[in-house]
């Protein structure tokens, strides 16, 4: 697990390190500057400009300029801001730099620098940029130089990745101690370039037991995958019911069922219209295929199928017909096992919210942004503006686990327990990959993981499988089946 800090959490940790633990701020700055210079080694340092603001981010910038100067690198400092508002550390770092002979300039001279270090604003930015700051950011972005941002690209909110009027488009960002939420969420992630987290002496001790509420996973979390037992059979690893597909539309059912098997499930039973039988039995002979005609929906076979399962998926490729509505309402009214609600089942519930009231099952819902817009009556831009908050409030209100799918998928069961996924790539933006995700999640669910853990780990593994597929196929033309098959590169 890796924590993703907002500005307030980072400031509190920083203050605790300085005031209670006793680490001087100037020592932390020196370590920060040294780590930036270390990362600058791969840049073209023929001539460097360091753009400094009046806060402690700017103080880091002055220290960076001094260290570069002492390496006989041609470096200039451009100060942007109010001289009267310099922090004490900023004033001190400025004096030290001047003592060593670091040169200050009053104009950028865009194309004379090969590298620009952005130390204008740090994580504390809370209002849109304007005036001289805006002008300088625009000039920096027009330069042909490589750009390294200190802690976070100036103009990006550390809390949500929002662009505050305009922002530096960095080649690389060196951030300190912990990853910042604004560097992970979009659009901030697109401005940060490659991100390097550097240890400067601030640790989790600074949390004082009040840990950040948002986190992501690393490869160490793969140990949470359920273990296989030497003495076991197919029933040991769960019986999954996939209610999916519509007349002559079998792809979603196939991807969900296949991904569940790839994730280690013991048995997968697909309930789908009769027209899909032949193709599903051909593509996935391992599955149990139960088909129906619309006239058969009220017969006992459906009850038998629901009672057979230890976990259920409903929704992929079902359409929003009367038959689909009947299946969703039936499953919600009589099933007692964990349930993953996806795709068209979400749209049906958005049209009839009462279906989800007083539900008795433990539920995972997996809406994409458009489906969440229908569920909440919010416009997509309103959701992306506060994607974590929207997901948290929806999960709390409906008493479910919410998997809000986007470039950075959010998994939450409410405030103070929110996962942001950082695996995956743009090659996964293709039809069927969402159905694969559903299968991965239910595969973990059927093997005994809790709903929240199955969702978090499933999203992470799904993204890793996408990365593995992209490394083999490239992001162009990558198919959902490639992602499904790459699950075995992650889960061994």
Question: What report would you give on this structure?
Answer:
- The chain is α/β, with parallel strands linked by helices and 492 residues long.
- It folds into 2 domains: 2-212, 3-Layer(aba) Sandwich (Rossmann fold); 219-490, 3-Layer(aba) Sandwich (UDP-N-acetylmuramoyl-L-alanine:D-glutamate ligase).
- It has helices at 7-21, 25-40, 56-70, 88-99, 131-142, 181-184, 188-192, 251-262, 277-283, 300-308, 322-334, 344-351, 369-376, 380-385, 387-398, 433-446, 451-473, 480-490; strands at 2-5, 48-52, 75-79, 103-105, 115-119, 146-150, 172-176, 179-180, 194-198, 214-216, 239-243, 267-273, 288-292, 311-314, 339-341, 363-365, 401-404, 410-412, 418-420.
- The strands form 2 sheets. Strands 8-1-10-19-18-17-16-15-14-11-12-13 form a 12-stranded mixed beta sheet, sandwiched between helices. Strands 4-3-2-5-6-7-9 form a 7-stranded parallel beta sheet, with helices on one face.
- The longest helix has 23 residues, at 451-473.
- The radius of gyration is 26 Å and the shape is elongated.
- The mean pLDDT is 96.
Keywords:
UDP-N-acetylmuramoyl-L-alanine:D-glutamate ligase; elongated; alpha/beta; 16% strand; 18 helices; 2 domains; 7-stranded parallel sheet; 492 residues
